[in-house]
Amino acid sequence: MIRICQLILLALLGACGAQPAPLMFGGARHETTVNGRDYVLYRKDDRVEVIRMGWASSGEHQEIRATMIEIVPWLTGCDVVPSSVQGDSGEMRARVTCPKGLR
Predict the structure, then answer these.
(1) Which segment of the chain is annotated as a signal peptide (predicted)?
(2) Could you tell me which of 92, 35, 45, 43 has the C-alpha nearest to residue 69?
(3) Which residues of 35-49 are buried (b: 16+ CB within 10 A; e: fewer)?
(4) CA 7 to chain centre
(5) Of 79, 7, 67, nearest to 33 (Cα)?
(6) Pairing of strands 91-97, 28-34
(7) Predicted model pTM
(8) Which of 6, 53, 59, 83 has its CA 20 to 30 A from that of 35?
């Protein structure tokens, strides 16, 4: 019985998809696909979090991270503050600066 409950819990967790970090709860959610790879971006105030969906091989991580930085202005209209970028090709967080109308 415990084994069945564990399997059900695992299946439910797998169906959750991209969830933001607690700091980003309530932020605007954006989704996009670039070069066949799906990304989910959350923006809240002057912060963004970008999550890559799916698996990536070891040789793809540098390109994926660059793509994650590039999609921020496409989806939000705000620029990434380069010195604030943290994370890897699976999940990246950064501060952004936005034109006056997008704050």
Answers:
(1) 1-20
(2) 92
(3) eebebbbbbeeebbb
(4) 27
(5) 67
(6) unpaired
(7) 0.78
(8) 83
Name the helix (H) or strand (E) containing 13: helix 2-14
Count of positions (residues) in the chain: 103
Which class for 16: exposed (0-12), middle (13-18), buried (19 or more C-beta within 10 A)? exposed
Q: How many CB atoms lie within 10 A of CB 50?
A: 30
Question: Alpha helices, DSSP H only, in the chain?
Answer: 2-14, 61-76
Decide if pLDDT at 14 tops 70: no
Q: What is the distance between the terminal CA atoms of the chain, rounded to a whole angstrom?
A: 51
22-66 pLDDT, tens digit each: 888 999 999 999 999 999 999 999 999 999 999 999 899 999 999
